[in-house]
Amino acid sequence: MVFSLAGQVALVTGASGALGRHFARVLHGAGARVVLAARRPEAVAALAGELGANAMTVALDVTQEASIAAALAAAQSGFGSPTILVNNAGIAATRPFLDHTEEDWDQVMAVDLRGAFRVAQAVARAMVAAGQGGAIVNVASILGARVIPGVAGYSAAKAGLIQLTRQMAVELARHRIRVNALAPGYIATEINADFFASDAGQALVKRIPQRRLGQVQDLTGPLLLLASEAGAHMTGSVLTVDGGHSINSL
Q1: Which portions of this protein are annotated as coiled-coil regions (predicted)?
Q2: Given 55, 65, 73, 96, which residue has the most CB atoms within 10 angstroms?
Q3: 216 near 18, Cβ under 8 Å?
């Protein structure tokens, strides 16, 4: 029962992506009422229909403060103040460093770091006001600790998100709010299927000690650990799920 989320309200940003959809299903399956947040709420309408009465959709652009405030107000009106936040919205710009533009940099930072900060701060303030504590899971990446060519802004943003997670954990602990980061490695999705079917993609997979890509199901247990009472004494942690990739020097 320590993994049960019965009575909890979970807000998932970036809910229209492969990871966001999976996170929503996992939280719902554990008993939470789930708020599906996406820039285009119609993109998660089918998922909301699948999950039924314990799911609702809200429009959320994490780069706009007014959008964050409106989405949080809608969630509170529909289900009550969130007790769980999965800060999942993110984008990447793939370009060599010498060709990386300031526009690339600004767009990635606006979503992956500043957007995550804004949503986390708004939800944390609501948690404090409600006096009920909660759990915040920032979705980082192994690229916040290691690098590959072509994603300078993304790597920098995820490194910043990991450090922000630690900062939040220290400051919010007195409010009974736990803050941890989930750092996936390479997870198979419809977006990266063509790349990982290529020679370059297969070469990358061979550098993963488990010799396979992660599946969204591999994130189920780690997410539930960080979101539920099973992880009650965890805050400021970075939970890596990558098949050993980040510790492999080859």
Answers
A1: none
A2: 55
A3: yes
Crossing angle of helices 102-109 and 152-172, in 10° steps, is: 30
Q: Is the pLDDT of residue 250 over 60?
A: no
Please choose, from the candidates 8, 51, 15, the residue with its C-alpha nearest in 3D space to the C-alpha of residue 33: 8
Where do runs of H (alpha helix) occur along the chain?
18-29, 45-51, 65-78, 102-109, 116-130, 152-172, 193-197, 199-205, 220-227
Active site residue 154: yes
Question: Can you tell me the distance from the alpha carbon of 215 to that of 209, in angstroms, rounded to the nearest whole number?
Answer: 15
Query: Cα dihedral sign for 21, 3, 213, 117?
Result: positive
User: Per the residue annotation, which of 23, 79, 117, 154 is the catalytic one?
Assistant: 154
* Closest CA relative to residue 27, chosen from 212, 219, 176: 219
